Prior knowledge:
Blueprint lengths: L31 H11 L63 H11 L8 E3 L6 E3 H4 L16 H27 L2 E3 L2 H23 L8 H26 L4 E3 L2
Protein name: Enkurin domain-containing protein
Keywords: Cell projection, Cytoplasm, Cytoskeleton
Subcellular location: Cell projection, Cilium; Cytoplasm, Cytoskeleton
Amino acid sequence: MAALCVEESIYNLLPRIVEKPLKAPRYVSTFKPYVKRTIEQSKAQWKTIGPAKVQVPSPKEFLLKHSKEPKLPKRRKDKGGKKMLQLTVPKITDHPIMGVQCTKNFISTNAANVIMGVAKKPQQVCVDRRQGDKIVLETSGLVPKYVKKKDYGVTPKYVTKRTEEAKRAQEEYDAYVKETLRQKAMKRLSDEERESLLEGLKKNWEEVHQAFQSLSVEIDTIPKKLHKERLETEMKQLEHDIQTIEKHKVIYIANK
């Protein structure tokens, strides 16, 4: 408790002046002017927000009305070099030619043209209502125009050509199938070949049977058992083949 109490003194009542510590002078590099000059020389104007120097627009060059609307190009002469046709309206300074008269008789000329001209054929129409609605027959589809054509009913050339090509392809395919069947046709064995084949099978059976009888009486090893099974299988297969050939007198062999 005694440590927390401060000794009472008159000097403690007076405010004390706090002395601020003095800072050391700021460090400035001796190369600062050189660096500043180098940056100013290497800096480009277009790398800033905008151009460094922009010419101020003139107050006389302001936006005019209809200045942004598209304008038609000027009228040019034709490619052939001919001048454009001028207006047919006579000018004020032009004067008509006086004293020129025509001797043509238009009444007699028109009468002669009517007498010598070929009469026009009336247009064929069809009236489908009482009110008099007319339909031109030529364009209505009611007149059989296509039936009267010269090539009506004649088979088109492309159809005839396509039919001939299909017929030729079918003939080639039939010939290929016939040749394939002929090559793969079954061959019949003659009696002599049948007898020789039968004798060969019997001879093979006798050889296998002789080998089978030559086996030892006691078969106690795996190789002996496998050899016996193989001989039995061969004898069964030969017996089956001999019985099949003896049963059938006519035998066909397929050509591979």
